[in-house]
Amino acid sequence: MIRAQIPVPAAPPVMGLHPGDAAAVIRALGTADFFPALRAMIRAQVHIDNLVALAFARDRGPLILHQWSPQEPNYFQLLYGKGAYQLDPFYLASLDPRRMGAHRLCDIAPDSFATSDYCRSYYQKVEIIDEIGLLHPIDDRAVLHLSLGRRSNSQPYTRADLMALRHLEPALSALLKQHSERAVAGWLDRRDEPAGTGATRDWLAAFGVTVREAEIADLVLRGHSNGSAGAVLGISGETVKVHRKNLYAKLRISSQSELYMMFIDRMLPKG
Question: Residues in domain HTH luxR-type (predicted)?
Answer without folding.
Answer: 202-267
